[in-house]
Design goal:
about 150 residues; 2 helices; four-stranded antiparallel beta sheet; single chain; Rieske Iron-sulfur Protein
């Protein structure tokens, strides 16, 4: 049997192998991190209830939403919403994220106020005072017994 001759790799070969290994170790997590974490669709391309929040998710007790006022809480998707009860039992909701720079608005007397730059929104989401220029998006909710739930 012939004995194979062992050779010592040169520095360039070692560095190339180390570089390829590094790319493999770093490349996969980087690609995973670059992937979408948007859960708005499942493997079949349909809407996912995890992203939008399952319909019927309890958002608040109706009794906790003041009549003629609003309650800022989290929506079924975990994002801030304002639940408004204009008259007893009549509930609507809007996003509570200011469209100017993303600050969570606060419920005030008859409106929603942004504490960062002074934007004011009506309970319908319309801009009453800037610097925001885009209204707050409507959020579908309904009353189910004594609870306000996602619709």
């Amino acid at each position: 049997m012939d004995q194979q001759e062992l050779t010592t790799p040169d520095r360039r070969s070692v560095m190339q192998v180390c570089g390829l290994i590094s790319l493999g170790l770093l490349g996969v997590p980087t690609l995973v991190a670059c992937g979408s974490d948007d859960e708005s669709s499942d493997a079949t391309g349909g809407a996912s209830t995890a992203a939008a929040g399952a319909a019927g998710t309890v958002l608040a007790k109706l009794a906790d939403v003041p009549v003629g006022g609003a309650l800022v809480t989290k929506g079924a998707d975990g994002k801030p919403i304002a639940i408004i009860q204009a008259t007893a039992g009549a509930v609507t909701a809007v996003s509570a994220v200011c469209t100017h720079q993303g600050t969570t608005v606060a419920a005030a007397s008859g409106e929603l106020d942004c504490p960062s730059h002074g934007s004011k929104f009506g309970f319908d989401g319309a801009v009453k005072n800037g610097p925001a220029t885009t209204p707050l998006a409507a959020v579908a909710v309904k009353v189910d017994g004594e609870n306000v739930v996602s619709a």
